[in-house]
Amino acid sequence: xxxxxxxxxxxxxxxxxxxxxxxxxxxxxxxxxxxxxxxxxxxxxxxxxxxxxxxxxxxxxxxxxxxxxxxxxxxxxxxxxxxxxxxxxxxxxxxxxxxxxxxxxxxxxxxxxxxxxxxxxxxxxxxxxxxxxxxxxxxxxxxxxxxxxxxxxxxxxxxxxxxxxxxxxxxxxxxxxxxxxxxxxxxxxxxxxxxxxxxxxxxxxxxxxxxxxxxxxxxxxxxxxxxxxxxxxxxxxxxxxxxxxxxxxxxxxxxxxxxxxxxxxxxxxxxxxxxxxxxxxxxxxxxxxxxxxxxxxxxxxxxxxxxxxxxxxxxxxxxxxxxxxxxxxxxxxxxxxxxxxxxxxxxxxxxxxxxxxxxxxxxxxxxxxxxxxxxxxxxxxxxxxxxxxxxxxxxxxxxxxxxxxxxxxxxxxxxxxxxxxxxxxxxxxxxxxxxxxxxxxxxxxxxxxxxxxxxxxxxxxxxxxxxxxxxxxxxxxxxx
Length: 480
Known about the structure:
- The chain is an alpha+beta fold.
- The protein folds into three domains: 2-26 and 328-478, Heat Shock Protein 90, CATH 3.30.565; 32-229, no CATH class; 244-324, Helix Hairpins (Orthogonal Bundle).
- 52% of the residues lie in helices and 17% in strands.
- Helix 3 runs parallel beside helix 4 (241-290) and helix 7 crosses helix 9.
- The protein is rod-shaped.
- The two termini are 24 Å apart.
């Protein structure tokens, strides 16, 4: 630990009611919603999505209905065939019993099996062993041409085949049952598929509008911004998942763009104001010398030189900010020890610390990171310079370097006047200077440069502050 200046009691303690650390990005401000399509408008993307959903649903239902109808028809056909087989077997058994009782075809009474068959809508023909027709029966009102293919079964009595029975199904009775059942199943499946298709189309329209509403709102806001309306926002689109994230990201981007526009306007005004005074002085002095009103003596030339240096500082500040913003493309990375960098930066600023009547306390532990030595030295220098500027005489400054797990931290703390609550969210804005610090020397880019350089190193910076209790900046970088 190294201390310069008057003695300090130690690190300042944060009060329980101190403000929470500030993140890199300012709080999102309230925004207006502009450029949103009318609520009743059915956007083209919604129409296309609804048609796609409906098409997929209808095709899926059609395939499902076709497959169901095919399998059901096969089952019905199998059932009908089995029923005809069972009926034919019953007729054969009845014929065999009759033949066994009469011992010949001439004495067989086949009225019972014929009645059974005709009532069931089946035509029956009985042939003897030589193929001669013994008896036949056809249901009343049935034309032979309407009968189906014959099912021929042998008549076996005492182990010997004595004849055959031919069974043909008609279009009534059991023969028509299969077709009727298939038609009923087809109608039921068709109507069900049609109803489900209608429901699918309605659901597709509803969900398409709900899904595309955030996209339509986002498109409207983007078009409004492209037309020059910087206040256009997506707003609350009542979406979830990626669409909600996209809407919030767009609004955050719009807030940042609006903030950048405001900062650029302020920057132009500030730079114009800063340039106006030295240029006016230079113009007046040189015109006076040219007109012979004043003599170009040493004092006059020194004044002109001071104004020239002032212009140079303004230009240098602009160059520093541009360099910091491009640091991510120009970093010279190597393993560096933050303790050595912080120590050298503190030693370089020791004369300013002493002249300001402050005490500097260093607590530096080795912490190796992969970074740009020059840029990290600039980060520490800017933080210490900022602390020196806003800490009254007799105060203390603390710089700490530590390594915790996979991260290294640089902490710069002071016992100064702190940051007013209203200025807290603006401390990293470029060229922003609060009312309380307008009279303090500087251009307002030091902390903006620090933030850009920390981001370029894939790190983060947080700040806690309370008025009259000082400010603490913590830079966190990934360890090497």
